[in-house]
């Protein structure tokens, strides 16, 4: 780590009380003071859940449309044919196709952020699964990206849908906006995400559901949040 970066992180760290666990309101207020990059940094939430993702029923995965969007322009690709392809185009999809789209992906042309597919196209999508899967782009019914209602799926993606899933260590990382957002918008987006995750709490999960939680920017240290407050979000 360069001296410049180390010094910048030191300055930012001094703004955070490391002995303190912040409530959401205070955490967001402090977060807004940590902007230090030359670009509009992404606000990120990390949650360590009391689940074991090795068990299928504890594999927390879903999607939520943030009320104030993510602040990011999202490019959407849709696997569909006929009327459904027309619906996707009308809804604002950036790329719509079938075999031709699969060929583009095989050739390494992946200039999109979300992939949506109608159920009848999943056999075709499966052929490029090895490429899409590792990039987190594989359509999935649990995130609403395998659906006959492609117009709604495209609309959700364009208006700020965030897909989330726990990793092998039981941690969820999710973007909830930009540091330029007003504090209230960051808070609203965060609570909407937490609400969606709380609804997915498996019956088989033992002990505390949200073990620990942090809030950070792309280039900032993390702020510890009150996990109990988050678990009470309904």
TrEMBL record:
GO terms for biological process: regulation of translation; translation. Transmembrane segments: none annotated. One of its GO terms (molecular function) is rRNA binding. Keywords: Repressor, Ribonucleoprotein, Ribosomal protein, RNA-binding, rRNA-binding, Translation regulation, tRNA-binding. Pfam families: Ribosomal_L1. It comes from the Bacteria. PROSITE patterns: RIBOSOMAL_L1. SUPFAM superfamilies: Ribosomal protein L1. GO terms for cellular component: cytosolic large ribosomal subunit. The keyword Repeat does not apply. InterPro entries: Ribosom_uL1_bac-type (IPR005878), Ribosomal_uL1 (IPR002143), Ribosomal_uL1-like (IPR023674), Ribosomal_uL1/biogenesis (IPR028364), Ribosomal_uL1_3-a/b-sand (IPR016095), Ribosomal_uL1_CS (IPR023673). HAMAP family: Ribosomal_uL1_B (MF_01318_B). Belongs to the universal ribosomal protein uL1 family. Part of the 50S ribosomal subunit. Protein L1 is also a translational repressor protein, it controls the translation of the L11 operon by binding to its mRNA. NCBIfam families: rplA_bact (TIGR01169). This is Large ribosomal subunit protein uL1. The gene is rplA.
């Amino acid at each position: 780590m360069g001296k410049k970066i180390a010094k910048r992180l030191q300055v930012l760290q001094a703004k955070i009380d490391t002995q303190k666990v912040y409530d959401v309101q205070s955490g967001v207020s402090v977060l807004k003071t940590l902007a230090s990059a030359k670009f509009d940094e992404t606000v990120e939430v990390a949650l360590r859940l009391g689940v074991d993702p090795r068990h299928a029923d504890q594999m927390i995965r879903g999607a939520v449309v943030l009320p104030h969007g993510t602040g990011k322009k999202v490019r959407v690709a849709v696997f569909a044919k006929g009327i459904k392809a027309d619906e996707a185009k009308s809804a604002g999809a950036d790329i719509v196709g079938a075999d031709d789209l699969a060929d583009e992906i095989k050739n390494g042309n992946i200039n999109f952020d979300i992939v949506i597919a109608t159920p009848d196209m999943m056999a075709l999508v499966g052929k490029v699964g090895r490429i899409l899967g590792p990039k987190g782009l594989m359509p999935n019914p649990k995130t609403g990206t395998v659906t006959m209602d492609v117009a709604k799926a495209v609309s959700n993606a364009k208006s700020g849908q965030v897909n989330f899933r726990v990793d092998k260590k039981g941690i969820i990382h999710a973007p909830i906006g930009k540091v330029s957002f007003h504090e209230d918008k960051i808070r609203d987006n965060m609570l909407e995400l937490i609400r969606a995750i709380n609804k997915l709490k498996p019956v088989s999960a033992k002990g505390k559901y949200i073990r620990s939680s942090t809030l950070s920017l792309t280039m900032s240290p993390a702020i510890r949040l009150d996990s109990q407050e988050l678990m009470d979000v309904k």
